[in-house]
Amino acid sequence: MDNEITERVEHVLSTARSVRKKLDFTRPVSREDLEACINVAVQAPTGLTGENWRFLVVTDPETKKQIAEIYCDVLVQIGETRGVTLKPTHNALMARLHEIPCMVFVFAIGEPTEDVSGQVGFFGSILPAAWSLMLAMRARGIGTTWTSLLTSRKDEIAKILNIPEGVTQTVMLPAAYTLGARLKPADRKPAEEVTFWNKWGES
Ligand SMILES: Cc1cc2nc3c(=O)[nH]c(=O)nc-3n(C[C@H](O)[C@H](O)[C@H](O)COP(=O)(O)O)c2cc1C
């Protein structure tokens, strides 16, 4: 791969930050863009369960309102019960979530078993697709946030969205075209601090 492509790919991978502000709440995200991103997402690895992902794009205002209410409820509760101070960025998205052009839910057909190996296999077959989706949207100027808190109210969400039994809800990506959001790599520990060689603890 030539250096320029490597640089571009690494730039997208390193700057797919959560975008909760600087979003264009007035411009619908095109179906063409969303389907192109989903076509990238379905190239993700999948386990023995096969292509068990399903994407559900919510654009209907009333449905978004109902979902946004649950989202706000959970987030406020997290703030109160876990003593977490919500950041202005969390509050910003919460305040306008009902206005987001679309909410993209990622579901997996099936349910995880309780053992670690089953869970790794199950979620390992769905979350890479969700992450690819977020990256593909980033590459097209669509800002998203990785959100999982709605899973704590999955039964209510299932009722609103007509989700059948035996389908597992994973993340919901609120999506909108970005308005000049300047996305930078996050401040993370470098590889040499988080990587062992040959045996645990050996650097
Ligand atoms: C498992 C998981 C669940 C998350 N759930 C939410 C969520 O429900 N709402 C939200 O605003 N952000 C959520 N986030 C996003 C984190 O808050 C985000 O990574 C953090 O804001 C750091 O920002 P960055 O993506 O710019 O590094 C979640 C992230 C992870 C990894």
Topology:
Blueprint: H1 3-14, H2 31-41, E1 53-58, H3 61-81, H4 88-96, E2 102-109, H5 116-124, H6 127-139, E3 142-143, H7 154-161, E4 167-177, H8 191-194
Antiparallel strand pairs: 1-2, 2-4, 3-4
Bound molecules: flavin mononucleotide (FMN).
Describe this structure in words.
- The protein is of the alpha+beta class and 203 residues long.
- It has a domain at 45-179: NADH Oxidase (3-Layer(aba) Sandwich), CATH 3.40.109.
- Helix content is 43%, strand content 13%.
- It has helices at 3-14, 31-41, 61-81, 88-96, 116-124, 127-139, 154-161, 191-194; strands at 53-58, 102-109, 142-143, 167-177.
- Strands 1-2-4-3 form a four-stranded antiparallel β-sheet.
- Helix 2 crosses helix 6 and helix 3 packs antiparallel against helix 7.
- The longest helix has 21 residues, at 61-81.
- The two termini are 29 Å apart.
- The model has no long low-confidence stretch (mean pLDDT 95).
- Flavin mononucleotide (FMN) binds next to helix 4.
